[in-house]
Amino acid sequence: MVGAPQGxxxxxxxxxxxxxxxxxxxxxxxxxxGAGFTxxxxxxxxxxxxxxxxxxxxxxxxxxxxxxxxxxxxxGHRKEQAYLESWxxxxxxxxxxxxxxxxxxxxxxxxxxxxxxxxxxxxxxxxAAASRDLAEDAAHLERNYGYRELVTMDAAxxxxxxGTAAYPASRLDKGxxxxxxxxxARRLAEGALDAGATLYDNSRVRAIEGNVxxxxxxxxxxxxxxxxxxxxxxxxxxxxxxxxxxxESFIVATAPLSDSTVLxxxxxxxxxxxxxxYYRKSADNRLLFAGRERYWTxxxxxxxxxxxxxxxxxxQLHDTPIEYAWRGTVGIxxxxxxxxxxxxxxxLFGHGYSGHGVALSALGxxxxxxxxxxxxxxxxxxxxxxxxxxxxxxxxxxxxVTAALTWLKVVDAL
Length: 414
Prior knowledge:
Layout: H1 8-11, E1 24-33, H2 37-48, E2 53-56, E3 72-73, H3 81-88, H4 90-110, E4 118-125, H5 128-145, E5 150-154, H6 155-162, E6 169-178, H7 181-194, E7 198-200, E8 205-209, E9 212-215, E10 218-227, E11 245-254, E12 268-271, E13 278-281, E14 287-294, H8 302-313, E15 322-332, E16 339-342, E17 347-351, H9 357-372, H10 377-383, H11 393-413
Parallel strand pairs: 1-2, 1-10, 2-7, 4-12, 10-17
Antiparallel strand pairs: 3-6, 4-6, 5-6, 8-9, 9-10, 11-14, 11-15, 12-13, 13-14, 16-17
């Protein structure tokens, strides 16, 4: 499994169940396309509600972003609550906060066994302005939302917690945490199967025709269809392409650490740059470090790309070997908020968690299943967030997005 696309994650879990490919024509109440966090959560909650649920996955459970990501559980949304209040209005922002709180509690509940779940998340300020922003946001959340899980830390406390002098300040979020994402995907799949859902992998969907989902060897006729393919949703729904940008993110895993100065608090960490570093320790004491992004051709040597950023934060790891390196495609939206909606009366979609998908996707899947079963309240709250297309049209969209994201790298360096 060393060469698996999920890198260390695939190497640290047993082989998954043997593939069961869809063959023939079947019926379901809900057909879920995609066996990542969103799709598996939709299957789990739909099946628990008594629906006949079929999941179709092109590869295997957790093959894409859900089995490759940083495993960080972030409370809230990608945009601060004060910003959401000014953009969407106070009530809608409060409704979104309520969903985000439900999301993190849902993940902690679903991942409490067998997923290497740990508590604690630090947001590390990369400069003085970011330090002030973190403190102001913490005060706003405590004053207006009663959220008291945040602890502001100065440079000395940050260094003691993380093991680096790279940051002038940070903020500990005791409501956040981290987990093993591929184990979590497998856990969701097991729960869905136990609840009565049917899962077919190696069953790539080729087309959605009304309420019929077609693969190479079969079809599913369903009362409702849930499109849960995140960054790759545009392949089946061209209408969604302008709303999705693809960013390649890169992660390395070191050999097990003998240096106790690295992350002694065992929290997950993400910094405040636009093109951020994020990292944590695994259950077997490796540093999992993610940094850098690419928008065109991925590098041949991921470790060589990421190592300089890792050493900038932890120079004490200069002689520590990197044993695994892998990449994954992150689906981002222009608003950096999830994009939920309907392609038709029977077809629902959700994607674009923009780096906050570990918690929000589990809740998103639950909302999609509820909407398919006639209870759309959570789904409607998410779907009311206005979506914005990336500019440029079919030919210029990717170059323009690349230019904008490259400019953010320049801003980070100022």
